[in-house]
Amino acid sequence: MTTIEPITLAGQHVILEPLSPAHHDGLAAAAQDGELWKLWYTSVPTPDGMAAEIRRRLSLQEQGSMLPFTTRLTDPATGGPGRIIGMTTYMNIDAGMPRVEIGSTWNAASVHGTGTNADSKLLLLRHAFETLGCPAVEFRTHWLNHQSREAIARLGAKQDGVLRNHSRTKDGVLRDTVVFSILEHEWPMVRAGLEYRLAKRR
C-alpha cells in the first residue's frame, strides 16, 4: 500500500503547502478576492466559513481520504512562498491502488488566467504519477460548470462518463457529476502540454 503523506510541492508560479489552521487568515482573504462562493456551481467557502472548511479537510486527512493543500504564489524575488491564493486537494484517496482525485480546488479571482492553475495541476499530477505511482488520476465537476469541464479537457483528461443525480449542491439541488481521468501512459503527453503552457508565460 502506498503511503500518501503531507508534502510541500514547489513550482514556477505556486507552492503547495500542507493545509494548516495557521493558514486561516490568508485563505479568508483569498476567498474575498472575487467572492467566488457566490457562484452557484462552486463550493468555495465563505470567509466566515473558512475555519470550518479547514477543520473538515483536516478531518478527512486524518481518515486517510484526503490530502489538502494551501496554494501560495511563488515569491519572484526569493523563490519561496508568497501570499496565499487558495486551496486544492488529493481526495477520494485509494492508497491500495493507489488512485487519487484532484479536486476541491479554488483560487482567488485575481490570479485566474496567470498560470497558477496549470502549475498547480502539473505539481499534483507529477507527484501522483511519478512519486506515488498512480495508474490513473481522476477529476470531477458539475455538469453545468462548463468552464471547469473545458479546463479539465485542456489538461488532456478524457471524459469517463456522467454520474446523474450524483450529489446535491449547497442549495440542495441534485447535480450531475462529470468524471474525467488521465491514465499513466497518457501522463507524458499531458506533462509536455502543461510544461509548454507554462514556458510560454516565462
Q: In one word, what is the shape? A: globular
Neighbour order of strands in the largest sheet? 1-2-3-4-5-6-8-7
Q: So, the CATH homologous superfamily?
A: Gcn5-related N-acetyltransferase (GNAT)
Q: Which strand-content bin applies to the residues?
A: 25-35%
What is the rounded Rg? 16 Å
Query: Biggest sheet, open or closed, and with what strands and sense?
Result: 8 strands, mixed
List the helices and strands and how they pair.
Elements: E1 9-10, E2 14-18, H1 24-32, H2 50-63, E3 66-74, E4 81-94, E5 99-107, H3 116-131, E6 136-142, H4 146-155, E7 158-168, E8 174-183, H5 187-199
Parallel strand pairs: 5-6
Antiparallel strand pairs: 1-2, 2-3, 3-4, 4-5, 6-8, 7-8
Helix pairs in contact: 3-5
Summarize the structure.
With 202 residues, this protein is α+β, with helices and mostly antiparallel strands. The protein has helices at residues 24-32, 50-63, 116-131, 146-155, 187-199, and strands at 9-10, 14-18, 66-74, 81-94, 99-107, 136-142, 158-168, 174-183.
Describe this structure in words.
The chain is built from five helices and eight strands; from the N terminus they run E-E-H-H-E-E-E-H-E-H-E-E-H. The chain has 202 residues and is of the alpha+beta class. It has a single domain (9-199), classed as 3-Layer(aba) Sandwich (Aminopeptidase), CATH 3.40.630. Strands 1-2-3-4-5-6-8-7 form an eight-stranded mixed sheet, with helices on both faces. The chain has helices at residues 24-32, 50-63, 116-131, 146-155, 187-199; strands spanning 9-10, 14-18, 66-74, 81-94, 99-107, 136-142, 158-168, 174-183. The protein is 31% helix and 33% strand.
